[in-house]
Design goal:
Length: about 240
């Protein structure tokens, strides 16, 4: 599983202008560095994400965001959000906060941020609190109302089972077994487009996409928790406390 490493965090609270067509500053606050990828990288990631709808729609959303296609980006992030994808829920909150692809709506932005922080991942939880501090009393009241509606459709209680069912279906499609059994003899290779299908040069080994943990709900959620609670977030280069040391 490859989670997007760069989380838009400290810059997430610069004001948007309320327009659907984003300002350069708003666009910069919503697009992640990891959204930008070449065609080959996108193809490889898409193949690995094929069995997991949260990862697949998150990847498509990131690709659309990099291109400035905000309507499709929002659509894809919403689809990923239905499968308990906290990063995609976070991205939606930023779009509403900055008015990128949608009219600026701080109350709805907070509701999505609260949903993204449901598992108390530190980055998302801190951002949620910063948003809350900037809301008016009326916006806070509406944010709570919007949040109740979102949780009913996107909260872990209903969204995690959706992904778990998708994992079960993916197991059943694995070559050689209708019940999802895989042994070490399974080898899957795919060549990037334009290369000779019978030439191993440039091929991509897809066997890891069937690693047991990726289709095991308990292990998959544990991996997400480990990544989002303990790092894999770019915070910039370190510096010495004493330059003379």
């Amino acid at each position: 599983m490859e989670l997007l490493a760069t989380v838009l965090f400290a810059a997430a609270l610069s004001a948007g202008d309320g327009a659907v067509e984003p300002t350069p500053d708003a666009r910069a606050a919503v697009v992640a560095d990891t959204d930008r990828m070449n065609a080959h990288t996108f193809d490889v990631r898409a193949r690995f994400a094929n069995a997991l709808p949260n990862e697949r729609h998150r990847l498509y959303g990131a690709d659309y965001a990099a291109k400035g296609d905000w309507g499709d980006a929002l659509k894809q992030f919403r689809l990923a959000a239905r499968y308990a994808d906290k990063y995609s829920q976070h991205r939606i909150s930023l779009m509403y906060w900055h008015g990128v692809g949608v009219p600026r709506d701080p109350a709805l932005a907070y509701a999505w941020a609260d949903l993204a922080a449901e598992r108390l991942y530190p980055t998302f939880a801190i951002l949620r609190e910063k948003m809350w501090a900037e809301l008016s009393d009326a916006e806070r009241e509406r944010a709570l109302q919007e949040g109740a509606t979102l949780y009913a459709q996107y909260g872990d209680k209903v969204a995690k089972p959706r992904l778990e069912k998708a994992m079960l279906r993916a197991k059943g499609r694995i070559t050689g077994s209708r019940v999802g059994n895989v042994d070490g003899r399974l080898i899957v290779m795919a060549n990037p487009s334009g290369l000779n299908a019978y030439d191993g040069a440039g091929s991509v080994d897809l066997a890891p996409m069937y690693d047991e943990w990726r289709l095991n709900p308990k292990r998959y959620w544990a991996a997400e928790d480990a990544i989002w609670k303990h790092g894999n977030v770019e915070v910039g280069p370190t510096t010495k406390a004493n330059p003379d040391d």
